[in-house]
Write a structure and sequence with these properties.
The protein is an alpha/beta fold. The chain is built from 20 helices and 8 strands. It has 3 domains: about 200 residues, Nucleotidyltransferase, domain 5 (2-Layer Sandwich), CATH 3.30.420.10; about 90 residues, Orthogonal Bundle (DNA polymerase, domain 1); about 80 residues, Orthogonal Bundle (DNA polymerase, domain 1).
């Protein structure tokens, strides 16, 4: 894929530090804005063009997070050399298997792939090979890894990111939004090539290959246990009874949001739920006195919300949620020194060594090795505490081979600290 020429860097003035040339704004797709694909005939034609194209395929999806329930894709963008950009509306075309067949053998290029893969899978798009430009930028040690920042750093273009949080379920989609969406895949393959060159120079190509393979092998994320515990402000609730009331209210909100296809926070904000639990109103009228519940929409739903609070208040003690969800992992790190000083010493040594190693290889420490895996290893050391056993434990915990090779000796030494 060709790119627009980037102006040559001007020579610095005497005694001045060299400065990068100003970024070139990308304001319109180089081939013009393509029409949105909304019919089966147009979809088949574009799929045939994709199959006849060459090289990797840039892929992106736009969702309506914060507006709609779930993470459904409301626009799918693709671009390939010899094909051009396609903007597909998955509302009238919920099955994109014809596109899947056309590009199944190609490498797909996405930015922050884990965010888009679930919504793409819902419409039948699942890559067999992947290059994640966001993850590649992390491995390359770039200071900022957002798409706009990486494009500007490596390609010299400036992407306008003003519509990333828009309600993409809007129909018809405004032309300026479609331009934004098309530009998100405009230089994605160019960015892939630039990052691949950096990783090759740094000796990290194999690291990236293993990381991308791990994303594909992971599959869709498992449903969260007790998702209501992620309510903002939940830590302000002190009793199990209050937690039971919040859970009941959260479930009522989630059911209503799912049925209406509205983001739960737009049905009832987290802060309003926590405030209602803390106020513990004993009548619908008392509930309507609280902020947010005075609004017209929530006045109509006062029976739903009050009923949920009442159900939570009347739960038997045995059915109330615990203060924290039982887990199989170690306790919070701030309790280690009291509960197991030796484990705290081991973790301190491991963290210090990993931070130094990550700095040596110019990558974030969390990409060197999962912090959760490190905590588990230091809290419950394997036996025997040798490099071979540590390596096996890391592999069982999901570490990639490059991570195991880099960290096993360091972590084995940390396990000897007491």
């Amino acid at each position: 894929m060709s790119t627009q020429p980037i102006p040559a860097q001007p020579a610095p003035a005497p005694d001045d530090e060299p400065t990068a040339p100003p970024a070139v704004p990308l304001l319109a797709p180089r081939d013009g804005l393509p029409p949105v694909i909304e019919t089966s005939t147009a979809l088949v034609e574009y799929a045939e063009a994709l199959a006849a194209g060459s090289g990797p395929v840039a892929v992106d999806a736009e969702r309506a997070s914060g507006y709609r329930y779930g993470q459904r894709a409301y626009l799918v963008q693709l671009r390939r050399v010899g094909t051009g950009t396609g903007l597909i509306d998955p509302i009238p075309l919920p099955d994109l298997s014809v596109v899947q067949s056309a590009i199944v053998d190609a490498e797909w290029v996405l930015h922050a792939a884990s965010q888009d893969l679930p919504s793409l899978a819902e419409v039948g798009l699942v890559p067999a090979r992947l290059f994640d430009t966001e993850l590649a930028a992390r491995l390359a040690g770039l200071p900022r890894v957002g798409l706009g920042a990486v494009v500007e750093s490596l390609l010299g273009y400036r992407l306008e990111k003003g519509h990333s949080a828009a309600d993409w379920s809007t129909r018809p989609l405004p032309e300026e939004w479609l331009v934004y969406a098309a530009l998100d895949v405009e230089v994605l393959v160019d960015l892939r090539d630039a990052l691949a060159a950096v990783l090759e120079e740094q000796g990290k190509t194999e690291w990236a290959r293993q990381e991308f393979a791990a994303i594909l092998a992971a599959g869709p994320p498992a449903p969260r246990a007790d998702p209501w515990r992620r309510t903002s402000g939940v830590h302000g609730l002190r009793s199990r009874r209050q937690l039971g009331m919040l859970r009941s209210l959260w479930q009522a909100r989630d059911e209503l949001a799912r049925r209406r296809d509205i983001a739960p926070g737009r049905v009832l904000p987290d802060a309003a739920m926590v405030s209602a639990v803390q106020a513990d109103p004993r009548t619908e009228a008392a509930l309507l006195e609280l902020p947010v519940f005075r609004g017209r929409a929530n006045r109509k739903l006062v029976g739903t919300w009050f009923g949920a609070l009442t159900r939570g208040r009347e739960l038997p003690e045995s059915e109330l949620p615990l203060h924290s969800r039982p887990g199989d992992g170690p306790p919070p790190v701030n309790r280690w020194a009291d509960r197991d000083p030796a484990a705290a010493t081991r973790l301190q040594a491991a963290r210090a060594g990993l931070a130094e190693l990550a700095a040596t290889h110019s990558l974030p420490v969390e990409n060197l090795l999962s912090p959760d895996l490190v905590r588990r290893l230091m809290w419950t050391p394997p036996e025997p505490r040798d490099a071979e056993t540590v390596a096996a434990t890391l592999r069982a915990g999901g570490a990639r081979e490059w991570q195991v090779e880099l960290t096993r000796d360091l972590l084995t030494d940390a396990l000897d600290r007491a």
